[in-house]
Amino acid sequence: MRTSKGARAGQYAALLAYLVFLAFPFLWLISVAFKPPRELAGLHPTWIPENPTLDNFRQAFDEQPLLHAGLNSLVAALGAAVIAVLVATPAAYVMARRRGRFAKAATGWVVVSQAFPFVLLIIPLFLVLKNLGLINSVAGLVTVYVVWSLPFALWMLAGYVRAVPRELEEAAAVDGAGPLRTLVSVTAPLLAPGIVATALFAFVTAWNEFFFALVLLKTPEKQTLPVVLTHFIGAEGVADLGPLAAAAFLATLPSLVVFALVQRRITGGMLAGAVKS
């Protein structure tokens, strides 16, 4: 009994340490965002600002087009999430339900493709987008984000498809439904948690992505929010810390809000009772 209590206490302590480790950067970011310049330059930093101010937020909006850049990021992230889900859902269904060399090869390629670094992909992607006339466009950036998130989306949705009982699809086939009708009317509704989770992954990945946006977008009016945040750093590497923290804090809010809205849908089990014994 003592060993069990000690192990449980150790687990809670490790979990608490992990949560503190994850929360520290975000909490410190919030603290810096509301501190005036004098406190930021102090030798003894404090967690809670002594004289909180909104001047950093006003200065951030005055110095950089955060709203326009945020709109570009939103369009790119939503476009990537929607297209990735529309493409990955039927492809994942085929991968999960069809057995053969093609399905095994596709699954293997999905796993291997995740090991490719960004630098290895950017040159061929740049050449392809240049030939298609999609350089310096949000549409080209959406295309890159879909290509980048699609392998993981396929792997993720395929696991959800395998969890759907085959008896439901067999019953639909007996009633005369074809593969497409079965996917749309029977399987897809049961995949709602997986589809939401996949869309969330694609959205957050595109929203926070920096490297591809930096290389592909040249004009300021096309740049996304992560690229615009780098403009708060001067030519000599000196950061305008207060406005940078304020802008970075605002940039993290959409991801947190989206996750808060859909986290119940992700964790909720929608297959309970789908098959009667």
Global mean pLDDT: 81
Number of helices: 13
Radius of gyration: 23 Å
Characterize the overall form: globular
Number of strands: 0
Work out the helicity level: over 70%
Low-confidence stretches: 268-277
Beta-strand share of residues: under 5%
Largest beta-sheet details = none
Structural class: mainly alpha
Give helix and strand order, one letter per element, not per position: HHHHHHHHHHHHH
How would you describe this structure to a colleague?
With 277 residues, the chain is mainly alpha-helical. The protein has 13 helices and no strands. Helix 7 runs antiparallel to helix 10. It is globular and about 75 Å long. The C terminus is likely disordered.
Ordered list of secondary-structure elements with their pairings:
Blueprint: H1 2-33, H2 37-40, H3 55-63, H4 66-97, H5 101-113, H6 118-132, H7 138-163, H8 166-174, H9 179-190, H10 192-208, H11 211-216, H12 225-229, H13 241-267
Helix pairs in contact: 1-13, 3-13, 4-7, 4-10, 5-7, 7-10, 8-9, 10-13
Summarize the structure.
This protein is mainly α and 277 residues long. It has helices spanning 2-33, 37-40, 55-63, 66-97, 101-113, 118-132, 138-163, 166-174, 179-190, 192-208, 211-216, 225-229, 241-267.
Q: What are the salient characteristics of this protein?
A:
277 residues, mainly alpha, 75% helix, 0% strand, disordered C terminus
